[in-house]
Amino acid sequence: MTTAKPSRQDLSNKVALTGKVTMNPVFGLVAPVGGQVRYWEVAEAKSTPTKPTRVATVWVDGTPNHVDVPAGSTFGGRLVDDRSTVTVGMPVASAKYAGYGIVADISGEQAYQIADSATGTVRAQIKNGPGPFDCSLLGTIAALPAGTVPAAPPQQEQPAKDDKQTPGRATPPQQPDQPKDTSGPTGLRLVCTAPDDVKLINGATATLEVVTASAQNALVVPVEAVAGGQGKGKVDVLAADGSRQTKDVVLGLTDGKVVEVKDGLTGEETLAVPGPDLPRGPENAGQPEVGSR
Asked: For residue 189, how far is the Cα from the chain centroid?
């Protein structure tokens, strides 16, 4: 048995991703609240917008909550039907960034880590290129369905005053155009943009580091001194006579080497390493008795 004393240090949880530099990446915009979404008619952009473009409003209890495409990006398409009931955080519109971005595919497990992030800080490094540098997040990490824009209603042609319709022949009605897909579906992915002074090359490989949580001057102990997890644990505190006292502690962040102790220790204790053993189950637990049916 060895011993350890708690110490204090800055601690952060990070998720590492592999991505690529991509031209004009598509990203999603989410509903800021739960309610009914109503879309705006958005004219096709003739150039890159220099100010935000309003594309939808989510109404709840008579209060509007707007969804805007940020400046520097163009509207991609609607992701749900007009007047749909949506939940907070649901993707409702797609947008296309004008320029280079860095796109990284993520797994479901990584998505939950990143989605629960309070900071969302991203650092990027281009392989054999510039970095590391801060990379600004764009939109949501959620997977997107295809974005569509409804076609304009058909225009009825008016006959000229001197035109004469042939008797017995009716003019066939014009069929409305079908909605057009304006952005393809995507999987779970993170999209971010580099500072203007960073030179990017389309297709270059990049490494991203997402800080999902951080704590400054946290009280930490070696992971070997703790039994448990998911926010709750136990440690063995050594008394002056060498006896052990098992104490409950509240756990926080970990980097795999040390774990944050939010409550349960003052920082002056001496801990036994390894920590307390979990209680063993009864012998033959879970085994059927002889002759049982």
From this structure: 8
CB–CB of 79/94 below 8 Å? yes
Structure tokens at 147: 């974005």
pLDDT tens-place string over residues 48-68: 999 999 999 999 999 999 999
Q: Hey, how many other C-beta atoms are within 10 angstroms of the C-beta on 234?
A: 17
Distance CA 264, CA 248 (A): 6
Q: Which amino acid is at 278?
A: L
Beta bridge partners of 29: 93
Query: Taking 60 as the threshold, does the pLDDT of residue 198 lie above it?
Result: yes
**Angstrom distances, CA of residue 247 to CA of 4, 8, 66, 208:** 15, 20, 50, 39
**C-alpha to C-alpha distances, 252 to 134, 232, 234, nearest whole angstrom:** 26, 9, 13
Record the pTM: 0.72
Q: List phi, psi (to 5°) of 285.
A: -65, 135
